[in-house]
Amino acid sequence: MGVDPGTAIVGWAVLEECKGCVKPIAYGHITTSPENSTAERLLEVARDLEEIIEKFKPHEAAVEDLFFFKNLKTVMKVSQARGSILLTLERFCVSIFEYTPLQVKQAITGYGRAEKKQIQIMTQKILNLKSIPKPDDTADAIAIALCHLNSRKMRQIRN
């Protein structure tokens, strides 16, 4: 499972790898209302994520790690959402792996400074999707999940 944290929108994706082939099982996003308090939004993210976990039963989850934000207020909100997401995954005994945007870009395109559009196009091609998933948060979650699958393969090779 891949998760792209946010307060307004949380992207998520469940992928399955079988005999070297990766296929999307499901993907989407959780949207919260800006009219709700921060606590209400975090609770909504946790509850919706719980439903996704109960439905698809992922064993592992890759969550985007915070790397750099220009806006301190934004980074605080995203940090709170990450906390809610990590706690929910832990409660369901899902193994958690964290990747920076740089690591995701490197894993998907081979270039750590790739543009968002390049990531989306590669993600679409890797999974043979008819179109790039929307919103961007969903496409990001898929890329995070693909990054984890690539990293997992590399760890297995080294061990």
Protein model, in words:
This protein is of the alpha/beta class and 159 residues long. The chain has a single domain, classed as Nucleotidyltransferase, domain 5, CATH 3.30.420.10. It is 52% helix and 21% strand. Helix 1 packs parallel to helix 2 and helix 3 crosses helix 5 (136-158). The radius of gyration is 15 Å and the shape is globular.
Using the 3D structure, state the CATH architecture. 2-Layer Sandwich
CATH T-level fold name: Nucleotidyltransferase, domain 5
Largest sheet: 5 strands, mixed
Output the strand order for the largest sheet: 3-2-1-4-5
**Could you tell me the strand content as a percent range?**
15-25%
| Number of E-state strands | 5
How are the SSEs ordered, and which strands pair?
Layout: E1 2-4, E2 9-18, E3 21-31, H1 38-56, E4 60-64, H2 72-91, E5 95-99, H3 101-109, H4 116-126, H5 136-158
Parallel strand pairs: 1-4, 4-5
Antiparallel strand pairs: 1-2, 2-3
Helix pairs in contact: 1-2, 3-5
Question: Which features does this protein show?
Answer:
alpha/beta, 5-stranded mixed beta sheet, 5 helices, 159 residues, Nucleotidyltransferase, domain 5, 5 strands
Quick overview of this protein structure:
The protein is of the alpha/beta class. It has five helices and five strands.
